[in-house]
Design goal:
11-stranded mixed sheet; 627 residues; alpha+beta; globular; Rossmann fold
Length: 627
């Protein structure tokens, strides 16, 4: 009989354990929940596909619509990422195969089309299951299977999450029952207008303040907003959320997924926050950076409701209107005419809300002319005797109040004590004439500037006039900023010169032909301008260039601001907050944007300089001819 020693027994057990480990260990290949059967991929785009696999393994991505196989490799912490080109939109279904040496995943029933994120709080979240009657009626009708739905399960986290819960579903009465009614009606109108599949990613949470959707790293740089959060946070809330907690768990996991844009319905939870416009603008900037796209944001102005503190709801509506007026690629939908009960914070009519959002997207994002989508807004006020005369923007065919007395209007004199006002509409020029027998010398007019007041002013198409107050403390500054933005959009140029290349001004773009120095910071309002780049030179006069503006307005250049260029840039004005930086092996270098007023058709010679960086012409659109 063979003797078994303790040493040999231990060796056998170790060997058995090692073998068992080899037998039970499973090769890893996993995709995030947002990449799955029935999904919609943004059409004609370079999109990211990502996931997890065994460390240092080759991963193959094989799209059925292409002959190319994309190869990438997982990192030591199992992550992998690749980019693929998507096909044109259509109802033809596709597959996507992802495989490693040991595993294979086949994603089926994929469509190419338009992908939109639907976010916010409860008014975005409400569905047929929660009593939205027009959505309940919609479930009785045949539904379009080229609409695909993905709901991000509600979750909150103090840290970034790599994945979220959810799954893509083909739109039908069952899958749409709990889906956002606003989101669905937006998607339905979009797919009908474009005749393309639409994927809707729904991520909302009732009662969530805007700060919970902003990355904490962005908020940390804004002490005023952080103080506002600390002051107004509801300590008795049943939700244990914090700055960025909903972004971390519900948005961060999908930032690699290509979107066409965002529709947003939120703001009720921020009533009382006087810096809401700044916070919402920060959210837009942060999301655009994180999604690596200049996403359009179309959003809903909160509805009239009996809030506890006077005018607190009206002030949030004013803050939202400021974002729409000042932030590029945004648009605001007014819903005051859709409210039936000002004691219910959740208006029950959602179909028209979704349709109005879709009209913004169809016009502004997809260039379709059709239904009027811009609400009439306050433009200016003049006073004649006891009457104030109000002029509107975007009311080309005038305004109306359906033959009834105008509602929710107030007027005051220098005492700033507002009185109920009467009004009439001048049919010749579309102005609104406002007065009160109790006010002899009008100073200001307010329309719907209260929590629950509902007006009846509409434009000729039936869209409600947006609430306003002529005594807004933001009005002068906002109008000046809006005027500057309008000037910028008017000035395309024709340019002639030798040795230039026409490119887009955006993050990552090279500033010079002969140097790999990418742009890393630039003002958002100049994003996607055309620019003419050329060789960077040392001690040599930069190339000459002549531009001719298409319209009266402003023309712009990028240059270094130093003693060498001071004389060269005579007559050019530095644009405020216009720093452009680029990366070099020695660190970041800073440039500035300069402007000059120009007349249509009049030639302007771009300055020349011996500064290394030279002079870079930029414009909204440049028609360049190489001499």
């Amino acid at each position: 009989m063979e003797r078994i020693t303790l040493k040999s027994l231990c060796a056998a057990l170790l060997l058995l354990g090692a073998g068992a480990g080899q037998i039970t260990a499973q090769p890893i290949l996993r995709l995030p929940s947002i990449i799955g059967d029935h999904m919609v991929l943004q059409e004609n785009s370079n999109v990211k596909i990502w996931g997890w696999a065994e460390p240092n393994q080759e991963v193959l991505i094989i799209p059925s619509w292409s002959q190319d196989t994309v190869r990438t490799k997982s990192t030591g912490d199992t992550k992998w990422l690749a980019s693929i080109q998507t096909p044109a939109a259509g109802n033809r279904t596709h597959t996507l195969t992802i495989q490693t040496r040991h595993n294979k995943i086949k994603v089926k029933d994929i469509l190419a089309g338009q992908v939109w994120l639907c976010g916010g709080q409860s008014n975005m979240n409400y569905s047929a299951a929660q009593g939205i009657t027009d959505m309940q009626e919609e479930l009785k009708k045949p539904m379009n299977p080229s609409i695909r739905l993905f709901t991000v399960t509600r979750n909150s986290s103090p840290w970034y999450q790599e994945d979220c819960e959810g799954e893509w579903q083909v739109c039908d009465a069952q899958s749409a029952r709990w889906f956002s009614a606003v989101g669905y009606f937006f998607g339905k109108a979009l797919t009908e207008g474009l005749n393309q599949p639409v994927g809707l990613v729904h991520a909302s949470w009732g009662g969530s303040p805007v700060e919970t959707w902003i990355p904490a790293s962005n908020m940390s740089k804004e002490p005023v907003l952080k103080n506002m959060w600390s002051k107004n946070r509801k300590s008795k809330s049943p939700y244990k959320y914090s700055i960025g907690s909903m972004y971390n768990a519900m948005i961060h996991p999908i930032v690699n997924f290509a979107l066409a844009g965002v529709v947003w319905y939120q703001g009720e939870a921020n009533v009382g926050h006087t810096s809401y416009a700044d916070a919402f603008s920060l959210l837009i900037d942060a999301w655009r950076t994180r999604f690596s796209r200049e996403l359009p944001f179309y959003f809903v102005q909160i509805a009239p409701y009996k809030y506890k503190h006077p005018n607190s709801g009206a002030e949030i509506r004013e803050q939202q209107a400021r974002v729409a007026a000042l932030k590029d690629r945004t648009g605001m939908v007014v819903v005051s005419d859709l409210v039936e009960n000002v004691k219910d914070i959740h208006p029950r009519r959602k179909q028209e809300v979704g349709r109005r959002l879709a009209n913004w997207a169809l016009a502004e994002t997809y260039g379709q002319s059709g239904s009027k989508y811009r609400h009439a807004t306050f433009a200016s006020m003049t006073v004649k005797g006891q009457k104030a005369i109000i002029l509107f923007n975007d009311a080309e065919e005038g305004i109306t109040c359906d033959g009834n007395p105008a509602q929710a209007l107030e007027i005051c004199d220098a005492s700033m004590v507002f009185q109920p006002a009467r009004a009439m509409i001048d049919q010749k020029n579309g102005t609104l004439i406002v007065w009160s027998d109790a006010v002899r010398k009008p100073v200001a007019v307010r329309y719907m500037f209260s929590n629950d007041g509902i007006g009846n002013l509409k434009d000729a198409t039936g869209l409600p006039v947006a609430p306003f107050r002529t005594d807004s403390p933001f009005y002068a500054a906002d109008m000046a900023a809006a005027k500057l933005a309008k000037e910028m959009t008017l000035t395309g140029v024709k340019a002639t010169g030798q040795g230039y290349k026409l490119v887009k001004l955006k993050k990552g773009a090279k500033l010079f032909l002969n140097r790999n120095y990418p742009v890393n910071i630039l003002p958002e309002r100049f994003e996607d301008f055309d620019m003419l780049i050329r060789n960077a030179t040392v001690g040599t006069l930069s190339q000459s260039c002549t531009i001719v503006p298409d319209a009266d307005g402003m023309v712009y250049i990028i240059a270094r601001k130093n003693e060498r260029t001071a004389e060269d840039l005579f007559g050019w004005r530095e644009v405020k907050n216009s720093e452009v930086t680029y990366s070099t092996h020695k660190g970041d270098e800073s440039l500035k944007i300069f402007s000059k007023k120009a007349k249509a058709g009049k030639e302007i010679e771009i300055p020349q300089t011996k500064d290394f960086c030279g002079i870079t012409p930029i414009a909204k659109k440049i028609d360049y001819q190489n001499e």
